[in-house]
Write a structure and sequence with these properties.
- There is one protein chain.
- The chain has 454 residues and is an alpha/beta fold.
- It folds into two domains: 168 residues, Aspartate Aminotransferase, domain 1; 271 residues, Type I PLP-dependent aspartate aminotransferase-like (Major domain) (Aspartate Aminotransferase, domain 2, 3-Layer(aba) Sandwich), CATH 3.40.640.
- Helices cover 36% and strands 15% of the residues.
- The chain is built from 13 helices and 17 strands.
- Helix 11 runs parallel beside helix 13.
- The longest helix is centred in the C-terminal third of the chain and has 20 residues.
- The protein starts with 8 loop residues before the first helix and ends in a 5-residue tail after the last helix.
- The structure holds pyridoxal-5'-phosphate (PLP).
- Pyridoxal-5'-phosphate binds next to helix 5.
Length: 454
C-alpha cells in the first residue's frame, strides 16, 4: 500500500487553485492542500494520482456505509429528477421529507417521535437551544443557562463560542456567551478532579448537580453533551456516566440534549450511542451519517414532553433547506441500509476486535497512555504521549510525522493536533470487515510502536 509521490500537472493545478481561492481546506489560510481526493469504493478513497487510502476517519464520521453505495446514489438521483428542493413551510411539504421523518422516528430511541431538519450539525445545535428556550418560555419559566463539557464540540453555529470547549484552537474561543457554563469532562485518563475510577464514584457526572445547585436550579435550562467526545479525540465515558446525568436532569427538571452528530447512526455499535446505556435524552441532535455522508442533512428529534409544551405555538425556526427532498431521500435510503444490514452489529463486533488488538499490542508501549485506549463500536481513541509518567502529549511535530507516515502507507488517519491532547483516533466506516480492520491495524500498530518517548 505504499503511496506514489509523483504529482501530475492536473493535481498541481488543482492544488494551486485551491491555495489561491479556497478558504478552510488547509490548516492555515493560504496554505496548500497536500492531497486531492477524487473517488473511491467501500472503505477506500482515491486521490487524483490514483493512490488509494483506507478512510480510518470515515471522512469526518460521515461515510458510515463507505463509498459507492448504489442504492443511496439511485435514491438521490430519482428525487433530484423529480423535485430536488421544496420550501417545507407554511403548509407545504413533499413525500420525500415525510418518508424520511417516518424512517427517522423508527430508528430514534423510543419516545423521541418528533423531528425537524437542518442542513448540518451546527444548525442542529442552534435549533436544540432554540427549542429549549421555547420549551421553558411556553411553561412561563425563565430558565436560560446551558451547561456543556470542557473538551466538547457542538459545531460552528451561533452557539459556537459558548457551548464548545474542544481541544483544538482553545485560545481563539470566547468570551463565552452569557448563560453558558462548562463543567469538567469525563476523560478518565486526564481526570480534571485528579480522581481514579471507580473510587471516584463518577464525580464528573455527579458534579453536574453541584453546579446546578450553585447556579440556582430555576435558572438552568439544559445540559448538552456528546455521548463520546468526538472532536477531542474519541473519548468515552464510563457506563454509569449518562444514566447518572439523566437522573440529575430529571431531578432538576432540566433538559438533556445528546449531541449525536458524530456518534449517531451505528458509529458506536448501536443506532445512537445513548442506546448503549438505554438513556433517553429529551433532544437528540444529528447530522453527518444521517445520509451516510452522501448529502448534507441534519436535524433534531424531541420527546413528547417538549412536543406537548410547544404544540399550538408558533414555529419560526426556519432553514431554507429544512427537509430538503433530495437530502431526505438519501437519508431514508441510508437508514434502510443501517437497519436491513445490521450495520450497528458489525460496528460493535469489528470495533471490539480493533479495541482488543490495540489493548493487547500497545498497552505496554511507553508512548501509549496507561488505560487510555477506549472504544465503543467503531469509535476508538487512545492517548499517545511523550512521557508515560507525566502524560505529556506527543509534540506537534511528532503527531504530524505519524499522520504523514500513515498517509505514506495508504491510511487516512486522524491524530488530534490541538492543545494538551494527543489522541489517535480510529473510526473507519461501520461496514468495515474483520479482514479490512486487520489490514489497517497491521500497518497502524508498527507505526505507533516505533514512536520513541522523550
Ligand atoms: N456536534 C458534533 C458532536 C460534531 O462532531 C460536529 C462536527 O464535527 C458538529 C456538532 C457540527 O456539525 P457540522 O460540521 O455538520 O456543522
Amino acid at each position: 500500500m505504499d503511496i506514489k509521490q509523483k504529482v501530475s500537472s492536473r493535481t498541481q493545478e488543482l492544488i494551486d487553485l485551491s491555495a489561491k481561492h479556497l478558504l478552510g481546506v488547509a490548516s492555515k489560510v493560504g496554505d496548500y492542500p497536500d492531497i486531492v481526493y477524487e473517488d473511491g469504493h467501500g472503505i477506500w478513497i482515491r486521490d487524483t494520482e490514483g493512490n488509494e487510502y483506507i478512510m480510518m476517519d470515515s471522512m469526518g464520521a460521515c461515510y458510515n456505509l463507505g463509498l459507492g453505495v448504489q442504492e443511496i446514489v439511485d435514491a438521490a438521483k430519482e428525487q433530484m429528477s423529480k423535485l430536488p428542493h421544496c420550501f417545507n413551510r407554511r403548509g407545504m411539504v413533499c413525500p420525500a421529507t415525510i418518508e424520511c421523518t417516518r424512517k427517522l422516528v423508527e430508528v430514534t430511541p423510543e419516545g423521541l417521535d418528533y423531528v425537524s431538519f437542518t442542513s448540518g450539525g451546527a444548525e442542529a445545535t442552534d435549533l436544540a437551544f432554540n427549542i429549549t428556550h421555547r420549551y421553558f418560555a411556553s411553561k412561563g419559566e425563565r430558565r436560560y443557562k446551558i451547561i456543556s463539557l470542557y473538551e466538547s464540540y457542538h459545531g460552528f453555529g451561533a452557539a459556537r463560542w459558548s457551548s464548545n470547549r474542544v481541544t483544538f484552537d482553545k485560545e481563539n474561543w470566547g468570551p463565552p456567551g452569557a448563560g453558558f457554563i462548562q463543567i469538567p469532562h469525563y476523560h478518565c485518563y486526564r481526570c480534571m478532579f485528579g480522581l481514579t475510577y471507580p473510587d471516584c464514584g463518577v464525580k464528573c457526572a455527579r458534579y453536574l448537580a453541584e453546579v446546578i445547585e450553585y447556579e440556582r436550579p430555576r435558572t438552568v435550562a439544559a445540559f448538552i453533551a456528546e455521548p463520546f467526545l468526538g472532536g477531542s479525540g474519541y473519548i468515552h465515558p464510563v457506563p454509569e456516566y449518562f444514566p447518572i446525568i439523566r437522573k440529575i436532569c430529571d431531578d432538576y427538571g432540566i433538559l438533556f440534549i445528546a449531541d449525536e452528530v458524530q456518534s449517531g447512526f451505528t458509529r458506536a455499535g448501536k443506532m445512537f450511542c445513548v442506546d448503549n446505556w438505554n438513556v433517553k435524552p429529551d433532544i437528540i441532535t444529528m447530522a453527518k451519517a444521517l445520509a451516510a455522508g452522501y448529502f448534507p442533512i441534519g436535524g433534531v428529534a424531541i420527546n413528547d414532553k417538549i412536543y406537548k409544551a410547544l404544540k399550538g405555538g408558533e414555529w419560526t425556526e426556519l432553514y431554507t433547506f429544512s427537509g430538503h427532498p433530495a437530502a431526505c431521500a438519501t437519508a431514508t435510503a441510508a437508514m434502510k441500509i443501517y437497519v436491513r444490514d445490521r450495520v450497528a452489529e458489525n460496528a460493535a463486533k469489528v470495533g471490539k476486535h480493533i479495541l482488543e488488538r490495540l489493548k493487547a499490542e500497545l498497552s505496554d508501549h511507553p508512548c501509549v497512555g496507561a488505560g487510555s485506549i477506549t472504544g465503543l463500536g467503531m469509535s476508538i481513541g487512545m492517548d499517545i504521549v511523550a512521557d508515560k509518567k507525566t502524560k505529556a502529549p506527543l509534540s506537534l511535530a511528532d503527531r504530524q510525522k505519524i499522520r504523514r507516515e500513515m498517509r505514506a502507507k495508504g491510511l487516512h488517519a486522524r491524530i488530534i493536533e490541538g492543545t494538551g491532547q494527543s489522541r489517535f483516533m480510529i473510526y473507519p466506516p461501520c461496514t468495515t470487515t474483520m479482514e479490512e480492520a486487520d489490514k489497517m491495524l497491521d500497518i497502524t500498530i508498527p507505526i505507533i510502536s516505533a514512536i520513541k518517548p522523550l
